[in-house]
Amino acid sequence: MRIFELLLLLSNIGLFGLTIMIKKGERKVKLLLIASSLSAILLIIHLITEGFRIQLVFLYCTSFFFLAISGYRYFKKSAFQKVSRFILGTVYTLIAIMLMLSAASLYAFPVFELPEPTGKYRVGTQTFHFVDKKRKELFDQARDRNRELMVQVWYPATQPSGKPAPFIAEGSMLKEEPLSKTFGFPAITMDYLKYIPTHSYVKAKISTESRSYPLIILNHGYQSSKVYHTSQAENLASHGYIVASIDHTYSTFATVFPDGRTTTMKTDMNQIAETNYRDKVGKVWTDDITFIIDQFEQMDTGKIKTPFKGRLDMQHIGVFGHSFGGAASYDVASDSRITAGIDMDGGLYNYHRNPRMTKPFMFMFSDITFKRFNEVRQHHVYTDEEIKEMGASRAEIEKEKKDTELEIEHFKHVAHHGGHILYLKGLTHYNFADVQFITPVLQHTGLTGDIDPTRATSIVNKYTLSFFNKYLKNKDDHLLDRPIDQYPEVKLVTPLFKK
């Protein structure tokens, strides 16, 4: 909650109390006029410095109402003696409701701050548009186009100037923001996201402290966006990595291209659980990643003109992602150019193949996801009551168990080849993305855990950084070797999958 928003709310609550208490007396009425004038000044300062947002429209109305009423009451001292108690009571009730709605809106839609990056570098960012001329777009057959991708890059910077980039820039992406659709409120209610700053500076100069920096490819979850992993990318960049986050076109809530075109979801939400369709979409994502690595190779040589010529350590490439992006990270990790990877709370696609992962890899699960995998690992037999709670038939559960067993074979293979498996107690699926900051309502609906979002991000970022430092920079802090008191939420369970 921003300071002038809070002061405006408190001033209106105070004005409401004064209005009810003041009955007669010129001095008291004058006090109300002064107080309402100060509230109006707060409103003006808020609009100038913090900006208008629709969530506060009732608060704006009450501010104008109190100023108008106090002025009228001061200059027309006998006016309110003629107003019936019923009318006054109705007005006071409406004001009380408007103030409660304003307070609820401030709670539900806070102008939050992304966590501060923990590294020594400032962070720069640039966005690139790539067209893969070797692939036709599969998910928009109405247009004969090649596969197009938008990629945002975060990197260590020096001497940035100007203001940090916004979390979500004002434009068509906000019109497609998924939370408004999920909860059924107008898209304009998410317009305030344009006020949230990041810690990245557009086109800042790349730091010259190191000759080159390892490259990490970041992949969002299904029906998500690269913007929802900004804090992860910024943190890695602040520690000396170049992070390229891909928008997997037609599997995002919105992707905006330089010419203003905006694409939305076209991959089928209902079919994605079906093996063949999941593998089809997955292959597109895997091919997206290998294509983007190709582009960065050309950036490093200077064939594609960017500030990153000669600045990319292409011998040390990491890949990670959340949910379906985590599955893509695992699938693409077989590319010989990739050194190590992380899957954050994602199952797998193409899991019917034999496990072949022998390079460093880490699975990082929420406790709910781990519980599901662990029950299958332990050959848990579900009771009729449990199956009823799941809302599925026993036949459906058995089929899902067989698929899950195939995924677990991959986890076991990773565990036996030096990989890491852990889960984070108190986190749920969306605690691995910045969507957790948007509204505390997500906690009440179970989409995020009870853990504070800043704490969740701190833990995820700490273990992500530790993993990549170990395998891309040969800097081992041994965080992945044993439990530590500082992070009791982290449960290292690799040994379970070695049995």
UniProtKB/TrEMBL annotation:
Keyword Cell division tagged: no
Origin superkingdom: Bacteria
What InterPro entries does this protein map onto? AB_hydrolase_fold (IPR029058)
Keyword Glycoprotein recorded: no
Chain coiled-coil ranges: 387-414
Keyword terms of this UniProt record: Coiled coil, Hydrolase, Lipid degradation, Lipid metabolism, Membrane, Transmembrane, Transmembrane helix
> Per its record, what are the GO molecular function terms?
hydrolase activity
TM segment ranges = 6-22, 29-48, 54-75, 87-109
Q: Which PANTHER family match?
A: PLATELET-ACTIVATING FACTOR ACETYLHYDROLASE (PTHR10272)
Name this protein carries in UniProt: Dienelactone hydrolase
Species name for this entry? Bacillus changyiensis
